[in-house]
Amino acid sequence: MPELVLVTGGSGYIAGWCVAELLRRGYEVRTTVRGRDREQAVTDAVSTVVDPAGRLSFAVADLTHDDGWDAALKGVDRVLHVASPLGTASNDPGTLVATARGGTLRVLRAATAAGVKRVVMTSAANASSPSSYATQGVTDETLWTDPDDPTLIPYRRSKTVAERAAWDFMREHDGPTELTTVLPGAVFGPVLTTGNIGSVGIVGRMLTGEMRGIPRIGLEIVDVRDLVDVHVRAMTAPQAAGERFLATGEFLWMSQMAHALRDGLGAEGRQVSTRQVPDVVVRLLARFRDPSLREITPSLGRRNRHTTEKAHRVLGWQPRPARQTVLDCAESLIEHGAVRIPPRAGSGR
C-alpha cells in the first residue's frame, strides 16, 4: 500500500506542486483546503501535470481554527506542512505572527496525536539570517534570526516564530513523530494555474513593463520543482529527522533577472525594464508615495547569502540554475495567459 501524505494548503503555489509531485511518485495524497469550493480548482491545477484519479482526497481545515485537523490527519503517514499566511504591508503584524505560530501548532498537535511518522515544515531562509541587514558573508542552518529584532518585517518574524514554536513543541513530545524543516529562498518557476501564482507575480510585473525600474535587491532563487524535490527527500531520508535544511538557490540581483528575461525571451521580453533605480529613490518613494515599498528598503544592496551544503551532503539535493528557473517561470506565465504583454507600437493589434 502506498503511503498517505497530507499536504497543507493545497490551493497554494508551492503546495500545489507538492501535491502533483507526490502523486507523480506514486503516493496517496490528501490536502487541506479552507472550503469545499476550492477542491475542483486544486484538482484542475494538479491535472495539468499528473492524473490524480483515485489518489487525491481533501480535508477542510483552516490554520486559524482547531476544527478539522484531527480528521485531516487520520490515517496519514507523513505530512508536508506548507501552508502559511502571507505578509503584506496591510497585515496586522501581531495577527500574522499569531496565525503562523498557531497554525503550525495545530498541525503538529494533530500529527503527533495521529502518530504520523514525520512532519516536514516549510520555513524560510529568512528564519536563518543575520538580524543586521548590513551583515555580509555566507551563513548556514545553525544561525537563527532574532525574532525580537524591531527591524524585522512581519513576514520574516512570523516564519521565525512559527519554526521556533515547532521545534519547542517537538522537544516536549516523546512520541514517534519526527520533525524536519526546509528553509527556501525566493521561490520561482512554472505555474500550475493562474489562480494563485505566489511570489512569481514579480516576474509577471517585469514582463508587462509594470515594473518600470529595478531596485537593487538580490534574491537566492530556488525553482519550485527543486523545492518540492528537497521536501520529498527530507520527508523520506532517515538521516533528515530533527534537522533544518536551507533550500536557497543561486543568488541573482533583480537586474540580472531582468537581463535574463530580455535576452532569453526575444520579442516576449521587450517590455522588461533593465533600468536600475537608485536606492535613494526607492527610499523616497517608500516614504512619500508607495508605503508597500517600505518592506523592501532594508534589503537594498544586501549581499548576505546562505549555504545549501547540508542539503547537498545529507540529501543529495542539487537545484537548477536560477536563470533557467526565471525563464521557465516567464514562459509558463505567458503560456497560461497570466500576463498580457502589450503589442508593439504600430503593430495594429
TrEMBL record:
Residues 128-149 are annotated as: Disordered. InterPro entries: Epimerase_deHydtase, NAD(P)-bd_dom_sf, NAD(P)_dehydrat-like. The keyword Transport does not apply. Residues 5-241 form the NAD-dependent epimerase/dehydratase domain. Pfam families: Epimerase. Keywords: Oxidoreductase. Belongs to the NAD(P)-dependent epimerase/dehydratase family. Dihydroflavonol-4-reductase subfamily. PANTHER family: NAD DEPENDENT EPIMERASE/DEHYDRATASE, STEROL-4-ALPHA-CARBOXYLATE 3-DEHYDROGENASE, DECARBOXYLATING. This is Aldehyde reductase. It comes from Streptomyces lannensis.
